Amino acid sequence: MTGVEASGALVAEFASERGAFRVEASLRVERGELLAVLGPNGSGKSTLLATIAGHLAPTEGVVRLGDRELARRDGGAGATIDLPVAERRVGLLGQESLLFRHLDVLENVAFGPRAQGRGRSAARLDAMTWLERVGAAELSRRRPAELSGGQQQRVAIARTLAARPELLLLDEPFAALDVPTAATMRRLIGELCAQTATPTILVTHDPLDAIVLAQRAAILHDGRIAQLGPVAEVLGHPATPFVAALAGVNLATGVATGSGGVAVSGADGSLLRLVPSEHVGDGGRPLGPAAAGAPASAVFSPAAVHVSPLGEAGAAASDSMMANRWIGTVSLLQPAPGGVRLTTEEHPGLAVDLPGAAAVALELRPGARLAFIVAAAEISVREHA
């Protein structure tokens, strides 16, 4: 019995304030589900976790875990609940392992069970069981200073889960690890969360964490949930430039057209019309004439853009009157994996990636005028609420 079989879903519907900054959240995380939370620095991720963990009281709203209310603020003379951190049964794991330096590994992991009233022998037995599950049993008599970063994080995971949390909060737990160790830790976290059916929130800047571990993703921006849904949907069609940059795609915002595409205004006042092969918006709703003029966005990969010289036959067709085509002036050249990334004066927010050989053949240079074409099959369109 791990103790987490009794875990219920997390319901967090609250507003919290730190000074003038306010975070508003409405989240539900089911048993066995891992929700990834992404957002730029200052978006409110730390405030979100602090409120759920009990380090910060909400200004209003409720945090509920199964049938237990961890916090409630109704305002005025209404009910007020603030369950102490030690009674919440919430495990928090961050970038730093925060192991007790004066204790060996076994006693570190046994600390949680001991704090919950278990006897020394039972707590040590429980601790060894968790060390075996994370593949660190041979480290039981070492002190934290004798461990590598990956070993410390394994022990920290064991210590967190040995305390039998009913909710797990992960705050960038892989950020300080090297690539092979991070991959191992992701696999371990994924396996343990599935085995224990613990509802889990993972705060991360790395889309790989969300892709590998999460069922859903939430995007936090300026203290509010800007997007929430399956990982494939959120990363496949981001709602914010931050997530578009993480996912490595271009996000072009504009207004829906009657043809099922998106009209995007250029810096020079010209319009770029981006039209996908299938005119399907958010939730499978077709983008047709009824949606014309509504806020919408188009997404495509920087590598999906074909570039040709203006002098080539047929390049004249790449004018602003045709869908998925524009003529642009190269404004910036940067290195990209396997080639070059460029942007244009007309659409500085849209990146174009070219293989090295293609860049050489085009004789790329700032100020060059080129024709750009995006295949309709590479474009997805989403109407905004």
Automatic annotation (TrEMBL):
Signal peptide: none annotated. SMART domains: AAA. The keyword ATP-binding applies. Residues 4-247 form the ABC transporter domain. It comes from the Bacteria. GO terms for molecular function: ATP binding; ATP hydrolysis activity. Keywords: ATP-binding, Nucleotide-binding, Transport. The keyword Transport applies. InterPro entries: AAA+_ATPase, ABC_SmlMolc_Importer, ABC_transporter-like_ATP-bd, ABC_transporter-like_CS, P-loop_NTPase. This is ATP-binding cassette domain-containing protein. It comes from Agromyces fucosus.
